[in-house]
Write a structure and sequence with these properties.
Two copies of one chain form a homodimer. Chain A has 118 residues and is mainly alpha-helical. In chain A, 43% of the residues lie in helices and 10% in strands. In chain A, strand 1 and strand 2 form a beta hairpin. The interface between A and B is medium-sized, with 27 and 27 residues. Chain A binds a DNA duplex (30 and 30 nucleotides) through helix 3. Chains A, B: One of its GO terms (molecular function) is DNA-binding transcription factor activity.
Chain lengths: 118, 118
DNA sequence: TCCTTAGTTCAAAAGTTATTGAACAATTGT
DNA sequence: ACAATTGTTCAATAACTTTTGAACTAAGGA
């Protein structure tokens, strides 16, 4: 099962920039990048907002072509749409992520996490 | 004479992305990049909107740290703030400009221009 | 079957951004 | 001094975006 995603050539630069220009969404993208390869579900981002609000922001990211959302059971697995973004806007995602990593003003996922030990 | 500009370390990533996420402003930046080195005044952008509206968009670009505005007589000379952007967000401006150059959906400066001959 | 978990949808409210026109200010040329 | 040129400011409006809570759907486990 799949949700509506724009075709790669329908991804709009100004829309991608506008969508990334929101601190909550930029924080989501930064976290997705830090876990690249691992598909994350929506509840991983609850530090960044309410369930409803995240649903809204994650839909914006998907509709802009920044993320891919796969429906698996009751979960939505979210990944960065790196392949298409890199093809369409070479270097953009990498430079945004690199800058976001150094951005202390951005809300953090896992900020409220208790130290986990082995 | 100088207008208020943010210090380099005050330039915010999400703010820069949000400001570039508007088609009018992205078109301004693309045109500035195409004429890099040549300071342009506001009236060069009149294809993109009314005088008042451009004043608004150009102020947003300046306040976000994307452009530098120098007051010279009755003109404002506008340049890309490439040095600071490149330092703060390496590769970002270049990838945005490269993508913007290939963006046919973006409004064009000089679209209404009559062929100029030598 | 019933309960829980995961996430969506909807409508309202709040907040923000973009666009407009009229009035203004400052500089430059005559 | 006057007019033209360049651009700003202000207030109003229009148009979006974000956030919220309550109600909902769909899958999975007991």
């Amino acid at each position: 099962m799949t949700l509506p995603h724009p075709a790669a050539d329908q991804i709009s630069l100004s829309n991608v920039l506008a969508v990334l220009g929101d601190p909550t969404r930029l924080a989501i993208v930064r976290y997705l990048a830090s876990k690249e390869g691992v598909p994350l579900n929506c509840s991983q981002f609850l530090d960044l907002g309410s369930k409803t609000n995240l649903s809204y922001h994650l839909a914006k990211l998907r509709e802009a072509g920044v993320t891919r959302t796969e429906v698996v059971g009751t979960s939505r697995l979210i990944t960065l749409r790196r392949d298409d973004l890199d093809t369409r806007f070479p270097g953009l995602l990498d430079s945004v992520i690199a800058a976001a990593v150094n951005d202390t003003a951005l809300p953090a996922v896992g900020a409220s996490e208790i130290e986990v030990r082995a």
